[in-house]
Write a structure and sequence with these properties.
Layout (H helix, E strand, L loop, with lengths): L7 H12 L10 H13 L21 H29 L9 E5 L6 E4 L5 E4 L4 E5 L7 E12 L8 E4 L3 E5 L3 E6 L5 E8 L2 E6 L5 E6 L3 E6 L5 E5 L2 H5 L5 E7 L1 H12 L2 E5 L8 E6 L3 H11 L2 E6 L2 E6 L1
Parallel strand pairs: 5-6, 15-18
Antiparallel strand pairs: 1-4, 2-3, 3-5, 4-5, 5-8, 6-7, 7-10, 8-9, 9-12, 10-11, 12-13, 14-16, 17-18
Helix pairs in contact: 2-3
């Protein structure tokens, strides 16, 4: 097992098979025992001699048959005892279990990806997000881990629930489509159900947990700081726009605008000045150039911008 760790599972199965074997036992007659003992003695080293057992107070020659049994049993059982010792050692030995190999997909700013999991589940992974999953699902569930945002289209399986784990909650489904937004730097986690049904497990502390169920069109909003949750309806088009290459702003403030543009285009903004008025941005941009978006904003808000590669300087007046 140490030399070939990739075959540990085969070894364990072989061991289990052998342990289940049951050998038929057959008792020998007295004549057969005498013949077997004679053969054993005949083949022993000539230096070994059999002396008559003297009569004594503690030994009855009538029980000599038990001596034959003991001698044959000792010789015949040696290999069996050795084998059993080996198996006992194997059973009690700490066996290194095969560790599941995990794969991590990590998108930086400006890059999205689509991942097909081992069971056929499709995952759209957003910008600046990370998905961790096993190369093969084993055990009683299909578990993955997410940081950031992703849209899941889960292959239905009644016997193997699909579980997505974030920092604070677990989402369990059998077969459904839903969106999760759970960035580490943000205070809120959103779970938006498009179809099917999900069960969300929220940990209050190490020993207590709360179960929340969602129906299609419902969204769980979980505040990581206050640990409060609420369930409400959500705008499917707005929530899933990113998956179709669309930036959708609805009454977005200045900070939300900058955060979205940085993730979407993989750039860094250097902002000089403060907005002179409250920004309430509404717009739909599909596969637009960043320069065109900034130019359109310039018609509404008094600003100047300068693009130098991945660095954007924004001056507010």
């Amino acid at each position: 097992m140490e030399k070939y760790p990739e075959h540990i599972q085969e070894v364990l199965k072989a061991r289990e098979f052998i342990e289940r074997l049951r050998f038929k036992s057959k008792k020998l007659s007295t004549d057969q025992l005498d013949i077997l003992l004679g053969k054993i003695i005949k083949n022993e080293d000539q230096r070994i001699t059999i002396s008559p057992i003297p009569k004594s107070k503690g030994i009855n020659l009538k029980n000599l048959q038990w001596v034959k049994y003991a001698a044959i049993l000792a010789i015949v059982m040696l290999p069996a005892l050795f084998t059993e010792t080996r198996f006992f050692s194997l059973k009690t030995e700490k066996i290194p279990l095969a560790t599941t190999e995990w794969r991590t997909i990590e998108n930086p700013r400006g890059r999205k990806s689509k991942v097909i999991l081992p069971d056929g589940t499709a995952v759209n992974l957003n910008y600046e997000s990370q998905l961790k999953y096993p190369v093969a699902f084993e055990g009683s569930s299909r578990k993955v881990e997410l940081i950031g945002e992703a849209f899941f289209e889960v292959v239905h399986n009644d016997t193997l629930p699909f579980i997505v784990k974030t920092n604070d909650i677990e989402i369990q489904v059998l077969g459904t489509s839903f969106n999760i937004n759970s960035f580490e730097i943000e205070d809120v986690t959103n779970v938006s159900l498009v179809s099917g049904k999900v069960r969300i497990k929220k940990y209050k502390d190490t020993s207590e947990q709360e179960l929340i169920y969602l129906s299609p069109g419902q969204e769980l909003i979980y505040n990581k700081n206050t640990l409060e949750t609420r369930v409400e309806k959500f705008d499917v088009q707005r929530t899933l726009a990113w998956k179709d290459g669309i930036i959708l702003f609805k009454d977005a403030g200045f900070e939300e605008l900058i955060t979205q543009l940085e993730r979407w285009y993989g750039v860094d903004f250097q902002v000089h000045g403060k907005p002179s008025k409250t920004w309430m941005i509404n717009g739909r941009y599909q596969n637009e150039r960043l320069e065109d978006i900034l130019a359109s904003l310039n018609f509404v808000y008094d600003l100047e911008y300068d693009i130098q590669g991945k660095n954007i300087t924004l001056k507010l007046k």
